[in-house]
Amino acid sequence: MKYNRLMKKTDCYPPVYQRKAFCFHGKPAAAANFLGFPLVLLSFLLMLTGCATTLPTDFERTHSTAFVNYDTTSAGQLFEEAALRHPGKSGFTIIRKGRRAFTGRIAMTAIAEKTMDLQYYIWEPDTTGWILALRLVEAADRGVRVRILLDDNTLEGRDSRIATMDAHPNIEIRIFNPFAHRGWRLFGFLTDFDRVNHRMHNKLVVMDNALAIVGGRNIGDHYFGVQPGTNFRDLDVGAAGPIVREVSKVFDHFWNGDWSYPIAALAERTYTEADLRETVATLREKVNKEKYPYPLDEDVESRIGQLGEIRDSLIWAPGRVVWDDPASIAEGKKVDDIQEAIFRKLETLDKELLIESAYFVARERGIQTVKKLVEKGVRVRILTNSLASNDVVAAHGGYASGRKRLIENGAEIYELRPDAVSKTVTEKRYFAGGRSRAALHTKAIVFEHDSVLIGSLNMDPRAGEINTEAVLYVKSEELARQVIAYMDEGVLPKNSYRVQLDDDGNLVWITEKDGQEVRYTMEPESTFWQRLVSGFVQMLGIEDQL
What we know:
Number of helices: 19
Largest sheet: 10 strands, mixed
Helix content: 25-40%
Structural class: alpha+beta
Number of strands: 23
Shape: globular
CATH architecture of the largest domain: 2-Layer Sandwich
CATH superfamily of the largest domain: Endonuclease Chain A
CATH topology of the largest domain: Endonuclease, Chain A
Radius of gyration: 23 Å
Number of domains: 2
CATH class of the largest domain: Alpha Beta
Distance between the termini: 40 Å
């Protein structure tokens, strides 16, 4: 039995207020939302009424682990043959384009024989989210065990839909660090901030314990080039060999920990297989209505037919998973975490450091580290979002606070243009009215042309000290060359602004349009509102929460 409710919990629910003003795309930043005072006041009044909510304790959590006999599956045997020829190494390939990234995930559900394990910060209720859910149900119908671990920060109002999937006997869904009050996330932030402020930002999927994808992409249309409005430039790593078992151990650690709650323990009622089939029918109607823009079944069939070629094209190199233990974060201190591992690595550099990060918020330690590196002769180049391309305006305010000092200390700073023409953003211009707006979501670092770090980690305090993250570190000149080529495309003048200082020490943004150099003396293509919020965040000095 996956879950056993011992008694029905009772909760006191205040009126649900649907405005999500407290969070900027999942980044808690109450102080940045200076227009949210009415919500704060309302929540304070609710607290005065004594209406309290606690997490359930009356449930059982079944312990489970990754599939052990991975080499007995078809995919396991295929990739294990190659792994045996490369002892001590694992196979890697970078996944640049959103269309291929989604096809890869769907192909995994199609060829899975034993298990599918998925761990994500965001799973959007949109076309790609629905399709993946349906394909996982199909895999479960074949007897595949499906485990899904989701962070709770963006799941408001979705318990019933998630619980219906969990009703499948071969599917189990758990929620990381759930909000006790299921109807209103803001209430949780106001009454239980120290706990719920810690989120699980990991993004990974493992099939049969034989293949894995780790990277920056959540599940949602704009991560896979499907969103008409905005699509993300992002990067994943496909992996095979021993590294996959390491990824599975990380998943199991989160899955079996006290911070992961069965969705059935949080849902208002028990859901049945009949509920599941009704939901499946509804999702199929939605998918048929929305129409995924690429020939998915053809893409998947082609991808499966190329498994041998994919295996033969893998880059075999030493690699390891670097991740944050949520237990140490809950105690207020990270133990041997990713941030400290990066700082230790930076001390060894002699030549070059290339960073591409959606959010880049440098505090004093980071600014001084850049200065020391440049003084040593190390080239430091950073690509992040411009204010106009950033989906988290508050985070841009934190970045802007240290931007000028980074440039003064010798860093090369580039910001993605919202009209970037990079083919890694959208593969095909099928959108009505032209190309979708670009935004940067990549989290990647290249050290010295010979090693790379790719995963969920942004270069900001929230990633470094508050949330959990998981990345792959790979020591490979060939993989580094491929990631550098990807990064170099992002800093081309047609895709980004080079931010420099003019003769008077003021910021200037330099790019090209129609072959001509164009200069801006204020945040290019941004709105008054974006500049106002960004400037307000800079005044608040809340970088530690961004």
